[in-house]
Write a structure and sequence with these properties.
By secondary structure, the chain is mainly α. Helix 23 crosses helix 27.
């Protein structure tokens, strides 16, 4: 006879992650509004720490890892205990996880505005913080899998499947993309270079969206939507297909971020094909969610929780249809590097992640505080203001994106570019940027409104720190009969075996990654070298690091695609061999400013760059680029220059280290810097006294003037098969 065990769910950890999600959500969205306004009013770039290039990665990290990350942990800790009928494995691990994650967020909030960044999208944090992320994630994994091991429910519900896939895949992605060689405490170089670095980064970047912003939220959808609607999930069989097809296919799709780049064609085509295949499982999941509400649409009209969840799931469907469509090469040729991509991303971020989080919070907080929501009317107002904010945000950006691309590609009847001045494509879309800022402000305001509603709910409620529950121990529960197994599908057997389930999940996500990444590392001809390409000089390397520090890659790409419009505007298209010494790659993903891959060969003088960085409007009237006067004032720090050269050499960059002593490196740096400074003094005699060779601006000019020089030399490829 089975013995019933009594236990208590830990609600404190759920509450803490909920509070953190709301607080960081407001902070992250506020930073988003600020950078949206900076694109309309460049004067809002207030000094180095509050410039667009440094704040933009802070915004993305705050929204993804602080707002969404805390919401994921909130939902996982709440639902997993109830699905496993067990308290979390260890309360101390729960607390370490919570405070460790908040420490990571605080370190990001300090380091990113300070310019300490790897510049790899969604993975900008430097190596010590990456190690801390790994440690905290391991704590989370132990706590989660320990809870499954102690479960009192024989079968793992579908939400747990998605949590398992999230934990193991994020670990794999983070570790491999964050392999970097430290230079100093807050400076490192990616171990990968050029094309290889680009593929690894977007293998990570796309799947960070897949396995951090999508799969855990699908698990939350499968738990909280039936709870809020008080209805079972529409189809168990569909949930099985949804899960396995999604995690297997998703991992292949990363290369669609690199279409028409120097990435080998086979990898681009593979990414496109699997991206299109993603439509099926993604829409299967969306329909499984929406059809769960069959017969309950009257309740949707009445309950704000369900309104948020329905719009969230619908946004998931829209984003996961649009993403594969954008991976079609003909569509991508129009959309990539434009604001169309920004609109697409925010349909998912604001609609899917934002509205799903809001709906769960509105359902969960009253549950934890044993009361009713303070005001359903306020929640409905939040819904409509937030939805209006999303529309005002994304619709103008879709329009702006199409406008940008068509202007870039337009030729006159005489066969010349209709808009040769890139700046004209910027000034035409500034009104759309203003509308985007309005939409973001509405969304932020509605989130603050929610925070007030939840706070008033908390004040009138009584927090239940621990919820008592009871269930028979797993060992005392009878095994299902053979008739039950036949009726409930063979997958039920796998759900009783969490270790095997996890191993199969890992295999499902590793296959695609290995097929895409291994050939690029083992077959050298996939990345042919160019004998004309040589390593950066010490001064140019320092300038490149300043370019990274200031976040210039946020607005400028370095990748000329093989289109007539791009070669006419920028010069010869980019080849894989150009980037073999680039640690990390800097191809970019957005053109708010022009492409810079050929900047060094278009004939701009040193004094143009000097004045442009001091005040962009002085050389480019109407520019929305921030001023960088501190580059003219700051002395270039060369204490770690030799160590940077040494680390690059260790990574395979062919510096002559026998001759490159620290003294020689600094001598070469000083010599090149003095040449640039001397030319500036000749061109600007009225400012000769202020022009010093040891300033940061000199190093940045050296780097900019180097871009494209090697690749455009009349030297053939060095074919190595």
């Amino acid at each position: 006879m089975s013995q019933v065990e009594t236990f208590r769910y830990d609600n404190r950890i759920v509450r803490d992650f909920a509070f953190a999600s709301v607080i960081w959500g407001v902070v992250g969205m506020l930073v988003g509004v600020i950078i949206a306004l900076q694109l309309v009013i460049p004067a809002l770039n207030l000094g180095p720490f509050l410039s667009f290039g440094r704040l933009r990665p802070l915004h993305t990290n705050a929204v993804i890892f602080a707002f969404v990350g805390n919401a994921i942990f909130m939902g996982v800790y709440h639902s997993s205990q109830r699905l496993c009928k067990a308290r979390m494995f260890n309360d101390i691990l729960s607390r370490i996880h919570f405070w460790g994650w908040q420490l990571i967020i605080v370190l990001a909030a300090i380091s990113l505005p300070a310019g300490k960044t790897t510049t790899k999208e969604y993975a900008e944090l430097e190596w010590p913080i990456d190690i801390l992320i790994t440690l905290v994630w391991v704590v989370f994994a132990i706590n989660f899998f320990g809870t499954i091991w102690r479960r009192r429910e024989r079968h793992m519900y579908v939400a747990l499947w998605f949590y398992i896939a999230t934990i193991v895949t994020v670990a794999v992605l983070h570790i491999f993309n964050s392999l970097e060689a430290p230079v100093t405490l807050m400076k490192s170089y990616s171990v990968y270079a050029g094309v290889q670095d680009a593929l690894v980064q977007w293998w990570y970047g796309h799947n960070a969206v897949a396995f951090f912003l999508t799969t855990p939220y699908l698990g939350l959808m499968y738990y909280y939507l039936p709870k809020a609607a008080n209805r079972p999930v529409f189809s168990y069989r569909l949930s099985i297909i949804h899960f396995w097809a999604l995690i297997f296919i998703y991992i292949w799709a990363g290369p669609h971020h690199l279409l028409f780049t120097a990435l080998p064609d086979w990898a681009q085509s593979l990414g496109m094909v699997f991206s299109l295949m993603l439509i099926a499982p993604s829409w299967g999941g969306m329909l499984n969610g929406l059809l769960t509400l069959r017969g309950a649409w009257d309740k949707v009209r009445e309950e704000p929780v369900l309104k948020f969840l329905v719009v969230g799931i619908t946004s998931y469907g829209m984003a996961t249809l649009e993403g594969p469509l954008l991976s079609i090469k003909s569509v991508n040729a129009l959309s990539h590097y434009t604001d169309w991509t920004i609109a697409h991303v925010h349909v998912g971020a604001l609609g899917w992640n934002g509205f799903m989080t809001f709906g769960i919070l509105y359902w969960l907080i009253p549950q934890l505080y044993r009361t009713e929501l303070y005001s359903k009317k306020w929640a409905n107002i939040h819904f409509w203001i937030g939805l209006t904010g999303i529309l005002i945000y994304v619709v103008p950006l879709y329009w702006a994106g199409v406008t940008q691309s068509l202007m870039w590609k337009q030729f006159t009847d005489e066969g010349v570019l209709a808009y040769p001045n890139f700046l004209s494509t910027v000034t035409n879309i500034i009104p759309f940027y203003a509308m985007r800022a309005v939409g973001g402000t509405l969304f932020l305001g509605s989130t603050i409104f929610m925070a007030v509603n939840l706070w008033k709910t908390i004040q009138k409620g009584d927090f239940e720190a621990e919820t008592e529950a009871s269930a028979p121990a797993l060992r005392d529960q009878p095994m299902p009969s053979a008739e039950y197994e036949d009726h409930a599908y063979k997958h039920r057997k796998l759900e009783r075996l969490p270790f095997l389930f996890t191993v199969l999940s890992i295999l499902a996500i590793l296959i695609g990654g290995l097929v895409e990444l291994v050939p690029l590392y083992l077959i050298k001809s996939n990345v042919p070298s160019m004998v004309s390409v040589t390593p950066y000089s010490p001064l140019e390397l320092e300038g490149r690091d300043l370019y990274i520090r200031e976040g210039c890659v946020q607005c400028h790409s370095q990748m000329v695609r093989p289109f007539r419009s791009e070669t006419a505007r920028y010069g010869d298209y980019s080849k894989a061999g150009e980037f073999v010494y680039d640690h990390p790659f800097l191809w970019g993903s957005k053109r708010t400013g022009p492409d810079l891959a050929r900047e060094g060969v278009i004939g701009r003088s040193h004094d143009w760059h000097y004045l442009h960085m001091e005040r962009p409007q002085s050389t480019s009237p109407g520019s929305i680029m921030p001023d960088y006067p501190w580059l003219l004032r700051n002395k270039l720090r060369t204490k770690s220059t030799w160590k940077k050269i040494k680390v690059m050499s260790d990574l395979g960059v062919p510096y002559p280290m026998i001759d490159y002593t620290p003294e020689v490196v600094l001598s070469l740096l000083d010599e090149q810097a003095e040449e640039i400074a001397a030319e500036l003094r000749i061109k600007m005699p009225e400012r000769a006294e202020e022009i010093q060779a040891d300033r940061e601006i000199i190093a940045l000019i050296a780097y900019l003037q180097r871009l494209g020089v090697d690749a455009t030399k009349d030297v053939p490829f060095e074919e190595e098969l």
